[in-house]
Amino acid sequence: MTKESLARRKKTGSHYTPTRLAQFVASKILENYSLPDSDSKIRVLDPACGDGELLRALVDNWPQKSRSFVSLIGIDLDRIAFQNVRYRVQNLGVDAIDLRREDFLERVRIELESALPIPGSLLESVDVIIANPPYVRTQVLGAKKAKKLASDFNLSGRVDLYHAFLVAMKHCLKTNGVLGVITSNRFIATKSGSRVRELLANDFEILDLYDLGDTKLFEAAVLPAVIIARRRQAPLFRSAQTTRFVKVYETLEKTFTDEVENVCAAITKRDDRIVRIGGDNFRVTVGTVKVPLSGKDPWIMVSDNEKEWLRDIHQSSKYELSDITTVRVGVKTTANRVFIRHDWDDLAETSRPESSLLYPVISASNAAKWKAKSESQASRKILYPHYAEGGVRGVIRLEDYPRAKSYFKIHREYLQSREYLSKSNREWYEIWVPQDPSAWSQPKIVFPDISPVPIFMYDVSGAIVDGNCYWMTFDGCEDDWLFLILGIANSELMTKFHDLSFNNKLYSGRRRYLTQYVEKYPLPDIRCQASRRVIETVKKILRGGLSRDEMTVLEIDLDTEVMAAYNVEYVPKD
Question: What digits encode the pLDDT tens for the residues 303-316?
Fold first, then answer.
């Protein structure tokens, strides 16, 4: 693929559907769609039809005897892809083919706002929707576009383009119409997906949910999910529903049940197993997920055995982490190349900021389990132009720091390009999210936001935490809470709890460690004997001076003690 094609796909979010996946989604739609008894027309819509793969797959799977009643509607803005659609769907024996090169979202918005009927209206006129809507996150959309989409389609938080597509598709689908959509699995667990979860729970009967995890079906680093759902009627009262799910994630398990050709073949059978696909092993997990009407909580997709294990963990817990401490994100400068450097000493003395403004920084680059890498911490420092006095945070006066003033002037044009600072009546040389300078010197736990394994570390250096990490302090609570939480967060048990509860794995087994997840970690009674053993073991680890073998023994002991603190005897395998 050319660089131009890659750039276009990133900008538009267009990642076309592999044939096998298209066939799978089409077959699942038709398993759940009841063909009308009469000879009435059946309208089928793909609102982001690309090259027509999904429409072709749906017609391929459609019963031959009723194809002549099917009318296809394909919409897309991509001129290059759109040229292929008619070729792919012609001569299939359908009643009509209506191809529209237009903006689907804009079309729906206009129809929703119109007081008069519009010829060829899509609203509540479609029997079946099959779609792989574009995936474009807020950062790529731009703030202006994201804000408009949020306003047009009643969204909030970080708006992804596929969020708006799902809302718009709901408006197009008839009651009892069936939707089959391929999308990012992020909506299942993230805060930004709450509106999507609420929409699906309230307006649809969710028939099947497939989380295809890190199976690398697309070139983009997007973990896909497939939703098969039926548009519900609108009674006055709703109740939570329970739906079937299948999820597939790579596993380190060496043994496998059988070898299959592709992911779609792996999820066709509805049972728990480990399969081999192209040299890699994947765990297929099957179960049911409770879908609450509120979108606030993530959907927890676990098997019956995993559900029972999670229940045991919660029953043995006395607190959530948020009851004990607050999880904070690190500083966000929005200009790291200016504020964070390793070569401050190499600058000319006149433009080398005063040492009182330079602090060591803990970043994902020098994160390590239990303690940060001290050598990296010493070499990288952050220029921090903020202070705290009497509980009030402020920004320094440049006149009081002539060398920092000289340094900032060198980078003034770049720093002033951050217009959001001036619009917030902030100084042009400020850090965008500075946090509280008076808290850095307290003992704290720091952890990176993305990591394949838990990397929770203890810090008493006074270092400032970079924006790619989170941190927590323990002022005002029993000192040993820090050591108990550090041990639990780094344990095998809590890693498994994190995976099952938040469903947030990325490619290559990496995990997201966000505030919304870590603050929900359940904690046992700090006074129970097993918790006290956890605390003492963590203190031994932090004292250092251990050989690799001694550290391994202590970490194995720690995992055993953590399980005892939660009164469980095992941790489910990956």
Answer: 989 999 999 999 99
